[in-house]
Structure formats: structure tokens, C-alpha cells
Amino acid sequence: MSATEPFLCASATGDEPRTLAAELAGQLGELSPAPDGRVRVGFICISDEIARNARLLLRELRKKAPIDHFVGGMGIAVMGREHEYYDDPAVTLMVGELPADSVRLIRHPVRSFDELTRALEGFVDPATPARLILNADPRLEDVEGILTRIGEETAWFATGGINSGADDAVQIADGVMSSGITGLVLRDDVPLVARHTQGCTPLPGQHELTETWRNIIVRLNGEPALPAFRRIIGDVLSRDLKRALGYIQIGFPIPGSDTGDYRVRNITGVDMDQELLAVGETLEQGSRVLFVRRDGQSAHEDLERMLQQIREQCPEGIRGAIYVSCLGRGRHQFVHADVELGTVQRALGGVPLVGFFANGEIFSNRLYAYTGVLTLFT
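^ Histidine kinase, sequence as received from the core. Prediction below:
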């Protein structure tokens, strides 16, 4: 495997770690140790049913294949080169060689921005461009705050996702752990491109948060929040608010974005008596928001648009791909399993790929929802 060859890829289903490791190693084929100056990295995604056996699985894989580092996350469902695995315990693995001097694992979970910068001391400083592929524990409260500081105080670019699944979610960074943030950090000489796609369509207009309290919208556009919200979504949806809240969310515009980018959060509740709206975000009075509608057709069109753009950035080919998609996407938004992945692979040409369905998606140092994040090794 040279610096320009495609990565290797393997997938296996079942719940017996030794059998899984043997099947994955068999699909990878005979591997010699990585040549001097290079390391072999295994990007691994496991479904939550396998979490309790993750340590044994890693131990068996190390016996069977000369892989220097393992890094990855866990999901209720995972993706391999050809399938989205929802209903069976599954492991997907992508293996590629990278320059040894350009790779650093975040092996010990970090829980703050300061811990992250200390973990990378001697490898990359905040002023030097770097790429971070992160896996985060869903119980870590301030993921968004850490990403915000990365965006404001460094030249780094982070992608990745928050693990999904059972309460004892695990992540992998040479070992198995269950807290904080782990992942892979790459110097800027490792060629990567990344883009994201959102599964929502904005309703017309932006709106002022005239009065807020914590995560409660009290007044919107100068009037009580609920009547204003009803007018925005229209008479038909207003007749059944419970149904409407199933696919109408609130969007927060990204400052300075020239593409109309926004972060989506759920509308978590309605107070009919006081005419209030509760949302899944701490609010800033006076800021502007938009409302968005989730629908499969718009999500598919935006995915196709993103794939065309990212393909144009890879004229010399793609070695491997990591795709992190929201739990609310996949078969829940595209009707059937494999539709979303199949769309990605038709556009990319069937490249080596691993990924998982996340509890939150990381792109460009921000935390998103209802989003697909594609990171390509070019």
C-alpha cells in the first residue's frame, strides 16, 4: 500500500469478537508491516451491541493484522463500503497508510479545550493548520463550547461525530474508553477535503428573538412566540402542532457564512397557556433565527449537491472516506436502509468508506444536527 493507493475496507456482522476479527482480517488480506516513516491506521466503527466486547475485538485484530493505530466510534447503526448496518451487530474497518510524523492520536479522553491543546503540545500548536477527526461521548456536556474555542482560537478544522447507542457508549483510540473526546489529528500535509449536507429546507424569512429566557422563546418578532410561530409555519400545520413539531425545527444562521449555512436544533416543547416555545439551545435575545422543514426530497437534493461539489475537489482520486450522518437521517429520512450510503457511493465511485449514525455531527468546528459530514482522504 503506497501513499497514493486506495485504503482497504472490511465489514463483518455478528457478536463473537474472535470471529469478527478473523473475518475482518480475511477481507483485508495479507498485510506486511507499514514501511519506515509510515503508520497504518485502522478507522473502525462498531455498533452498540458490540461495545461490551470492544477490548477483546481490538486485541484479536492486533494479533491478525499489522495495524499500528485504531481510532473510531460507536453508533446505533454503522456504515461500511456497501451497507448501512441497522439490525445486526456489525463492525466496519478502513485501513490506510499515513506519514508517521503527521499523525497523532488523542488517546486519553479530553474534556476541555485546554486539555486538548495540552494533548497536542509538541505536535501541532494552535496557530498551525491541522485537521481533527473527533469522536465524542454523548454525556460530555460542553462539546459545543470546546468546538467554539477551536474555531475562535486555532487554525484547526474539526470534523467527526458524537457517539450514539446505549448508555455505556464507547470510543476507540488505540484502547477503549467511554468519556470525553478522542480522535485523530493530522498535520496539514495529509490531503483531506470535507463537506456537509443538511436534511432541511428553510421556510421563508429570518425572525428576531425579541424576548428570551434561557432556552425559551417568550416573544418572536415583537409578539408572543406561539402565535408568531403559527403564522410562520402556516394554517395547515398550525392545526396539529404535535405533528408539526415532528418535522419543523429551528435554525441558527452561521455568522459570516456566504452559503446561508445554519445549525438546526429541535423545538422541544410548547406552552399553550403562556404561548411560549422551548428549543434545544440556549438563546441570545435580539439574535435572528429561521425555521426549517425536514423532508426526504430536500435532503436528497442537498446531498447530491454536496457530493458534486466535493467530487470536483478530488481530481486525482479518493483514497478513503469517513461519513458521519445523523440518527434522524438514513432509513428514517430516506425511507430505506442503504439509500443514503448508495447515493454517496454512486457519486464517489464506490470508494473505501466507514461511518456511523451519530447523536450530533461535527463539521468546521461546529456541532450540527440532521446533517451528513463527509471527510475524504484524497
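Residues 8-197+300-377 form one domain.
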